[in-house]
UniProtKB/TrEMBL annotation:
It comes from Paracoccus chinensis. HAMAP family: Arg_succ_synth_type1. Keywords: Amino-acid biosynthesis, Arginine biosynthesis, ATP-binding, Cytoplasm, Ligase, Nucleotide-binding. L-citrulline binds at residues 91, 96, 127, 131, 182, 191, 267, 279. PANTHER family: ARGININOSUCCINATE SYNTHASE. This is Argininosuccinate synthase. SUPFAM superfamilies: Adenine nucleotide alpha hydrolases-like, Argininosuccinate synthetase, C-terminal domain. GO terms for biological process: argininosuccinate metabolic process; L-arginine biosynthetic process; urea cycle. It is an enzyme of class 6 (ligase). Transmembrane segments: none annotated.
């Protein structure tokens, strides 16, 4: 075909689906394929992906396996948590925030290799296709994006298996049947959906959960930890300085053993349908509670309330794939400005699936005990001032009340 790509960079996990895509690209287009596998902290050994790519005919110099955990947390997760971003009131955006980084590296590798296309394994029903492609086009408007699930005729598990067997693609035994559910994982969370989870009326089986113990089985004694922040980003746990990825991994350990961060959620996908997912975000749940805790004493009400009003829009932009959009970057600049004095330490209680802030202190604190005390305040606040404040704020309401009484 005349417009067939000559060289394609594929987001490659090493699993059955992306291995089939790899071979399909070779057979469909006769093109050279370059693979990119990202270590986002998913907890899996990635070297088998290299061996499998080589088995499928990929040259060693065309196989890219990269540890991007620090970049992921520093440049994507932490900026998002400065905003306290939560989608539809509950979801901490663990899958959403990983996609722009993967797309960025796909484009960069394509440019380095002189490739004219990138490819991904997202289906035509989900959000990830949108996130990958909007990010890619924002970074390189001329790039071609290939989404095999929207093109090919391999529309069933049976057809996929037949294609794999025909092309000598290794198939794990558990892939010959219907998988009970699909899993996406990175350092921030795990996401499980499909099959056994598709009926939202049925409770998810306990085996779905991978990072957290059942809260009922968590330790009977609470654990207390302290998280220190500098300009809105967590930098230490219990006084020990850590890199971003190391810190999030440590919070995952703390949260996992106390059953923190489980979410059974039916969300509205950008493409229009609802889907049910089981999420585990142990470290992120702790981080959100800690960040809100330090903001409580370091952020003034005007800044904090403005941030909270903008947060749903910011979260929606990330969920819908607009990380590299100008509006997300504009909101990020505002959010980052608000974090200038968000430094200090928060004490947290971890117990049976919950995390709560039980103490917070900071050299940047706006909290004045002299002003709020119920004891003698030595003139810090004149209570008589409140009368005029209330009188002026009541004027509008009194005028409305008089008008309503008159017209009735």
């Amino acid at each position: 075909m005349s417009d067939a790509p000559k060289k394609v960079v594929l987001a490659y996990s090493g699993g059955l689906d992306t291995s089939i895509i790899l071979k399909w690209l070779q057979t469909e287009y006769g093109c050279e394929v370059i693979t990119f596998t990202a270590d986002l902290g998913q907890g899996e050994e990635l070297e088998p992906a290299r061996a499998k790519a080589e088995l499928l005919g990929i040259k060693p110099e065309n196989i890219h396996i990269e540890d991007v955990r620090e970049e992921f947390v520093r440049d994507y997760v932490f900026p998002m948590f400065r905003a306290n971003a939560v989608y539809e009131g509950q979801y901490l955006l663990g899958t959403s925030i990983a996609r722009p980084l993967i797309a960025k590296r796909l484009v960069e590798i394509a440019q380095a290799h002189g490739a004219d296309a990138v490819a991904h394994g997202a289906t035509g029903k989900g959000n990830d296709q949108v996130r990958f492609e909007l990010s890619a086009y924002a970074l390189d408007p001329s790039i071609k994006v290939i989404a095999p699930w929207r093109i090919w005729d391999l529309t069933s598990r049976t057809k996929l298996i037949e294609f794999a067997e025909k092309n000598q693609i290794p198939i794990a035994k558990d892939k010959r049947g219907e998988a009970p559910f699909s899993v996406d994982a990175n350092l921030l969370h795990t996401s499980s959906e499909g099959k056994a989870l598709e009926n939202p009326a049925e409770q998810a089986p306990d085996y779905v959960y991978q990072r957290t113990v059942n809260p009922e089985d968590a330790p009977d004694q609470p654990e207390y930890i302290e998280v220190t922040f500098e300009k809105g980003d967590a930098v230490a746990i219990n006084g020990q300085a850590m890199s971003p990825a190391t810190l999030l991994a440590a919070l995952n350990d703390h949260g996992g053993r106390h059953g923190i961060g489980r979410l059974d959620f039916v969300e509205n996908r950008f493409v229009g349908m609802k889907s049910r997912g089981i999420y585990e975000t142990p470290g992120g749940t702790i981080l959100l509670e800690a960040h809100r805790g330090i903001e409580q004493i370091t952020l003034d009400s005007g800044s904090g309330h403005l941030k909270d009003s903008l947060m749903p829009r910011y979260a929606e932009l990330i969920y819908n794939g607009f990380w590299f959009s100008p509006e997300r970057e504009m909101l990020q600049a505002l959010i980052d400005k608000s974090q200038e004095y968000v430094s200090g330490t928060v004490r947290l209680k971890l117990y049976k699936g919950s995390v709560s802030c039980v103490g917070r202190w900071s050299d940047m604190s706006l909290y004045s005990e002299a002003h709020v005390t119920f004891e003698e305040d030595a003139g810090a606040y004149d209570q008589k001032d409140a009368a005029g404040f209330i009188k002026l704020n009541a004027l509008r309401l009194k005028l409305i009340g008089n008008r309503n009484a008159r017209v009735k």
